[in-house]
Amino acid sequence: MMNPDESLQVFVPLKVRKQNGRPKIMPPSTYLPSEDRTQDPHILRAIGRAWGWRRRMEAGEFNTVTDLAKAVGLAERHVSRQLRLAYLAPGVLKRLVYKREVPAVTLLKLTDVAALPWHEQPERVFD
Known about the structure:
This protein is mainly α.
């Protein structure tokens, strides 16, 4: 345990503003975003949703994609396309989810890549 003489105080210049009635932390005006791209949270969310839907279908909760789409209140075409993400190659999933690597494709293109054989997916997603 540190005594007060050994403590370290860190000052982070952030501003809190309300946006849509919710507080939002604003970076300092001198902040320059890094050149590195970061993982798109929509991709992670879509993969998680697809796996949830896949588990529910495999458990027999829904017999068809149409039944699933009705239950979640989305268009059947959208659910069918997003469900493909649950069938991405294990190596691609590991790089996207655990290593948080940034794909070279959009979410829409990622759903198309999921229909390809597993050995072709990494080069299409990351190159």
